[in-house]
Amino acid sequence: MAVKEVEPNRTKMVWGVKGVHKFPASVLMLFYGMDRALAKDFETGLYNLKTHLERK
Fold first, then answer.
1. Contacts of 29 (CB under 8 A, 6+ apart)
2. Residue/partner pairs of 40-44 with CB below 8 Å, 24 or more apart
3. How many CA atoms lie within 13 A of 50 on its CB side?
């Protein structure tokens, strides 16, 4: 995760997950992407971060 102020009222956020899956999980990930699995958590986290940063 990285946060950088671009302008006085603008912030750039980079957030991701990286990992290696062993067999058989590696095969399952071909059909079930982590983007779909984590999308709700990412959206909630980004919303919470945005709310927190706007309070400061």
1. 21
2. 42/15
3. 10
CA distance 55 to 50: 9
> What's the pLDDT band for 56 if we cut at 50, 70, 90?
low
Of the chain, the end-to-end C-alpha distance in Å amounts to: 19
**Separation of alpha carbons 33 and 11, rounded Å:** 28
Distance CA 38, CA 41 (A): 5
Instruction: Please state the φ and ψ torsions of residue 42, each to the nearest 5 degrees.
Output: -65, -45
pTM to 2 decimals? Answer: 0.49
